Fold this sequence. Notes:
Layout: H1 13-24, H2 28-41, E1 46-52, E2 58-63, H3 70-75, H4 103-108, E3 112-118, E4 125-131, E5 134-135, E6 139-141, E7 146-152, H5 159-163, H6 168-185, E8 190-195, E9 198-203, H7 209-217, H8 219-223, E10 226-227, E11 231-233, E12 236-242, E13 255-259, E14 262-263, H9 267-276, E15 288-294, E16 299-300, E17 311-312, H10 315-336, E18 434-439, E19 443-448, E20 451-455, H11 457-470, E21 479-489, H12 492-500, H13 502-507, E22 511-514, E23 519-526, H14 534-546, H15 559-573, H16 577-581, H17 583-591, E24 606-610, H18 611-618
Parallel strand pairs: 1-8, 13-15
Antiparallel strand pairs: 1-2, 2-7, 3-4, 3-7, 4-5, 4-6, 8-9, 10-12, 11-12, 12-15, 13-14, 16-17, 18-19, 19-20, 20-24, 21-23, 22-23
Helix pairs in contact: 2-6, 6-12, 9-10, 11-15, 11-17, 12-14, 14-15
Amino acid sequence: MEQKEQNIELMSDTLASQVAAGEVVERPASVVKELVENSIDAGASSVRVEIRRGGVSLIKVTDDGCGMSKADAQMCLLRHATSKLRKVEDLFDIRQLGFRGEALPSIASVSQLTLTTRRGQDVEGWRLSCEGGDMAPLMNAGCAPGTEISISNLFFNTPVRRKFLKSDETESGHVEHQVRLHALAFPKLRFTFVRDGSVVFDVAGTHDLRQRIADFVGRDTAEQLMEIRQTEAPGIRISGYLMPLSAARRNRRMQFVFLNGRPIEDTIINRAVRDGYGGFPTGLHPGLFLYLEVEPALVDVNVHPAKREVRFRRPSELTMAIIEAVASTLAHHARSGTRVPAESGTVLAPAPVQNTPSSPADEPHTPARQKTQTQPLRQPPAPPLVLQPVVVPRQQELTLPPAPAPARARERDIPRCTATPPQETEQTELPHFRHIGTLQDKYAIFENSEGMVLLSPRAARERIIFERLQATEQRPMTSQRLLVPELLELDARDFGLAAEAAQQLSQAGFSISRFGRNTLRIEAIPALLPMKQVAPFILELLQVFTRGEVKLNRSRNPFEPFARQLARRYAAQEDIAPLLARPMPLLAELLRCEIPYCTPGGKPTMLPFPISEINRRFQAQ
């Protein structure tokens, strides 16, 4: 068989653009990011973003920037065509948000794109259409000065990419979050966001950063902001606001960091913020709006295709500057008495800044470790994560989709675990087990005919709750109405996840309705899961889906992964002291489960220690 002499060929321009699109265009929010950045670079004072069906059907970005000439309009959809770089040295002095020259051609290769543009000094504008990378001839157009780019049918020619998108609600939440980031980064610009024909927000340009923040977090929260004492170091300037401790979250959703107007995520900055607080309660992250101005020569923004990550050339100096800015701000507000205390009246004292010398050779990935000390006035408890329960008037009923009637399950799929607790008897339930004590207030110790058994109450409870929830595949879970409904204000992305999880939440016995644009009203909880703080529990549960640990509505049984996480989260929050005090009913209920010996995640619930093995270890007869 004759072998081909040439296997390596040049990719076509269309294929090369689609490959590049895989790095640049992850989802509709990625498209919005690139287009809005181009509008800002064009000197716009007003940017309008409109989407339909989460951005899959339509994305339209309109600005009043400088516009393009006929020649520029013809060039803008060619790969690597840019007006922002002229020579290699420009890569070390990047002052624009977009500069690669890949965004527009990459987007055009996986969508139907229409560009309309006009410069202010020109009499007429120009319109250019492109479908899947194939450009139509340039045409004259009457339009206002500026640029309008319309993206229709995103991923129409790459159905595999489209299949991996989430629900319209979730994708809309990501787009809204992206527009909010740009609005916070550039408060002097007007930003309008329209979703499915409805105006979500329209914020006017302002020179008052606090006012722009208030547009998104509310005036009450904005009034509690602590202005960061402006800190400067060689080539570095830091400003912004710290949020009150009550805004701390179990993720970094309330941390907004901007570098030269670019929203970024960086572990060096995250550690520096925590060190500036002198530490922080485990698992919580303070809220803040941090604005960094760094000389372009001191930072490399060209290390990530989507430009979310950066690399600093002198990270230790930036770390010290952030620590000093945060610590001095907290100290100033502590002295002036204007700080916002935690709910119990305790505050977190700032850490004194240690003026340690910088490392002689700062490496871009490993900043010099800084020594900070914590001097708390009292040990602060974990601050509340959400709004406190309030009495609210009746609103329209649940607007999230109700759970459909479940299909009839096969008999072998129905768990044997009963939904009612066993009788509170110690010996009649399990005559072969005898409770003989506890180990370190964490495990229950039992004796039986075969030897000794250690029981983990938390793991046992997780298995029991999971199998009870599994039984709801055949019938809805019984609910218990709250005397006072709780309100849960969510990030736009989390609200989209809540809508996507509505079927599972309703099936599990939660009654939740929409209360405002991104706020949920929790009216009832599962009778099976008594809990003191409902809103934080649901927020923590949603974060599991945010991190992508569980895919909603993707498996054959969409309720199973939800039930597994629900059981795990509830078991982790429950106090095990009452279970250790009377462990026999718990053991009896566990042994009635279909799979009693491990949690849904595979961790053991009981560990046996046979008497034969114990005798062997002691060399006993």
